[in-house]
Recover the amino acids of this structure.
């Protein structure tokens, strides 16, 4: 008799309903990492066009907007009010510049997103912060975001911009499809060559929050590198290999623009080998090795969850939640490795979206709240000096996390989504 597997090969729904978490009390500042929250989830891309001004590109998803004809124009549209301020630092009350505007978005069939941009006058300061607030006037949905501005002479990613050849739309994510043809441009339109470095995807997943061992960085030697001729600072970008690409206009600088391709279904996890790897935070070394060496990884995943949870229906539900979190971790935290492998991705998968986030110039503090016991659990992620992408954050590890980590893993392995 054939065994009925609980595992559905491509089951990731990428829907907020599968996140499953405690009742909502998430603050707006933390909601950008919580797809279940009643807020807007905009994407941003800042490009330093010249020494005098930058462009801040904005992407909004129409399924998060409320459209109505209850307006003076009698047009079925969404109305988004936007206000931004530029400050010397996140916590500063000094306003260097500010502006506000209103976007009126007409309802269009089959439209999934809208893209707009604002011109921002560059300030004579290496580092500053754009604080941007939005509100959907019909739904009263809000967002509150911080964009760290880097005007220093380090050739960082804000000096680069990428477009899809097909539709000339900006690319907001670091990941791309091998079928994509891109144009990558640099602020300096006089450069005639741009270097591309390729790294194989050999970067390991994050270690436990109580472990202090040093992790790999992108300072490792590239597997291959070459130059593309640039015209007015622009190059075509069309590659056939998966992996990590570091695009550099200045080969003497460490930084540049990152583009990654981990699979053509990324950020979804669809291959059984990918799903086995994403159990790393819950398995023993022996269990993980056995699953990775299995000829039937699909079955080994089924068996792991069934043996851990004991109940088939509960096992199906728990694995759906776990892998949806992995997918969202990829969506939110991709850097030079998959989002689920990063420090923030690890904490996100095991503990869930934080209840609150405190932003700093070079760090984020995630706060988990246990109101019943009047306790808090905090994780601090810092931006390392050698960071290449905006998603390069490192957790400040500490032995004090052992107890909560072990409790969380035990909860998952017993078939219960962990809530601090």
């Amino acid at each position: 008799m054939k065994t009925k597997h609980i595992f559905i090969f491509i089951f990731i729904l990428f829907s907020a309903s599968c996140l499953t978490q405690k009742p909502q009390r998430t603050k707006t500042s933390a909601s950008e990492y919580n797809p279940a929250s009643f807020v807007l989830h905009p994407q941003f891309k800042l490009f330093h066009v010249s020494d005098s001004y930058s462009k801040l590109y904005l992407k909004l998803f129409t399924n998060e907007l409320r459209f109505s004809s209850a307006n003076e124009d009698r047009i079925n549209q969404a109305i988004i009010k936007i206000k931004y301020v530029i400050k010397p630092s996140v916590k500063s009350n000094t306003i260097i510049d500010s502006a506000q505007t209103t976007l009126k978005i007409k309802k269009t069939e089959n439209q999934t997103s809208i893209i707009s941009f604002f011109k921002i006058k560059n300030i004579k300061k290496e580092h500053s912060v754009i604080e941007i607030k939005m509100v959907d006037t019909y739904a009263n949905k809000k967002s509150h975001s911080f964009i760290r501005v880097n005007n220093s002479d380090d050739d960082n990613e804000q000096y680069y911009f990428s477009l899809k050849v097909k539709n000339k739309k900006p690319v907001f994510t670091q990941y791309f499809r091998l079928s994509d043809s891109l144009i990558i441009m640099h602020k300096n339109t006089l450069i005639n060559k741009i270097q591309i470095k390729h790294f194989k995807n050999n970067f390991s997943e994050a270690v436990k929050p109580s472990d202090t061992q040093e992790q790999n960085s992108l300072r490792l030697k590239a597997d291959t590198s070459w130059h593309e001729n640039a015209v007015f600072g622009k190059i075509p970008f069309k590659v056939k290999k998966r992996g990590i690409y570091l695009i550099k206009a200045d080969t003497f600088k460490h930084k540049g623009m990152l583009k990654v391709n981990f699979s053509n279904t990324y950020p979804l996890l669809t291959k059984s080998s990918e799903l086995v790897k994403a159990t790393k935070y819950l398995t023993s070394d022996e269990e993980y090795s056995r699953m990775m060496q299995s000829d039937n990884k699909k079955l080994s995943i089924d068996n792991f969850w069934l043996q851990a949870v004991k109940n088939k229906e509960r096992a199906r539900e728990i694995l759906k939640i776990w892998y949806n979190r992995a997918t969202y971790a990829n969506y939110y935290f991709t850097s030079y490795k998959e989002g689920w492998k990063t420090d923030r991705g690890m904490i996100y998968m095991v503990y869930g979206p934080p209840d609150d986030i405190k932003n700093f110039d070079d760090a984020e503090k995630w706060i988990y709240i246990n109101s019943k016991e009047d306790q808090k659990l905090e994780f601090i992620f810092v931006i390392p000096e050698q960071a290449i992408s905006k998603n390069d954050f490192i957790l400040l590890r500490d032995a004090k996390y052992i107890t909560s980590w072990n409790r969380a893993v035990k909860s998952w392995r017993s078939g219960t989504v962990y809530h601090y």
Observations:
- Residues 1-26 have pLDDT under 50 and may be disordered.
- Residues 267-413 form one domain.
- DSSP finds six helices and 18 strands in the chain.
- The two ends are 42 Å apart (CA to CA).
